Amino acid sequence: MTEAVPTEAQAEITDAVRKALAKHGYARLTTAKIAAESSKTEAGLYYHYDSKDAMVVAFLESATGFLRRQLEEIEATDPEARLREACDRLFVKFDDEPRRRTNIAVMELLAHAPHNETLQGPLLELESSNLTVVKGIVEDGIEQGVFREIDARGVAAFLLAAASGSTGFYLALEMEDIGAPLHAQAESYIDSLLV
Amino acid sequence: MTEAVPTEAQAEITDAVRKALAKHGYARLTTAKIAAESSKTEAGLYYHYDSKDAMVVAFLESATGFLRRQLEEIEATDPEARLREACDRLFVKFDDEPRRRTNIAVMELLAHAPHNETLQGPLLELESSNLTVVKGIVEDGIEQGVFREIDARGVAAFLLAAASGSTGFYLALEMEDIGAPLHAQAESYIDSLLV
DNA sequence: GTCTATACAGTGATAGAC
DNA sequence: GTCTATCACTGTATAGAC
């Protein structure tokens, strides 16, 4: 999938969508609110995108790239260290406000996807992308004899699910005190994968 | 929290909200669609509830009761069997269409909660309720020497997060083939809790 | 309690000037 | 490319008859 490089104006709108989602959520997202977060007027947005949905999709595509890079940039070479670092980045810290809000927004889009076909493709891409990267780390670990002979895809999915689920009651409901114990259990789970 | 017993009409509206959410999602939920799923007209709803939000809150309260009962009705007495059964019920089956849709709807509400104060209390109640039940099972297991000396609350949160996260890419994105491996990893994790 | 009718504030999107 | 003006429509909620 070679996505077209967005123009500068498109990138600015994409960022405005992110900010508007962070402030108001998808259910209350309007083109007026997107315009308010950008340097453009409401009508101006429509020169660059055909519809509100198209703007949201553009946001998702940029988020996919950001998330993939976040996981690929991990420097450690040892598979165990890499998996722990990936886990650390997936379980978003409570006080990382922008990232927290972005994660919650993606979750709202995800939950709405069954009712909006336009969102399905980009979200599938986003999740598959994450899944592939984490799966790759686990596979390396198995090959190198660090992890047991486990189902790499299942393990990756389980860790991603736990991280994404933690966004729910930990981040969205602000159950601050559950973050650390949750993360600790993810670490325990990784322990159990070692040979 | 002793909730007032809903009238018959209120219960019918609550159910209509559930159906409308299953069909259209929260972002596209309207009072007209709620009315369409019930025997009442749009204006008629407002005799029983003051606002659309109040109807959604009523739905959440009934869902909380349903979910708690679902976990409390488990018949096994052995803590390990009870935890596995709880897990089985939390990881909703793909072809259980109504439950799948309801889970997705709750997830969408959860992700929107930071932007709608009215939803926060009921959702906190819902999640706390689940957390307490699962935590109780784990605590029993520790006392009876079945599980290691683990952090019961953290374990409960981790399992709930994984189950809730699986609703995201497994249920919402219809990644059917990931359901079984995901569930299998939850089982492996439970294995790792045993003494 | 439930209906019809309607007020009235948005909402997505377009037309056409600059 | 970006603006102002505007439109057709939808959405929540209320008034008042029955």
TrEMBL record, chains A, B:
A Pfam short name: TetR_C_6
DNA-binding region of this protein: 30-49
Highest rank taxon of the organism: Archaea
Keyword annotations from UniProtKB, A to Z: DNA-binding, Repressor, Transcription, Transcription regulation
Entries under Gene3D superfamilies matching the protein: Tetracycline Repressor, domain 2 (1.10.357.10)
Chain ranges of the HTH tetR-type domain: 7-67
Keyword presence, Protease: no
Name of the protein this chain belongs to: TetR/AcrR family transcriptional regulator
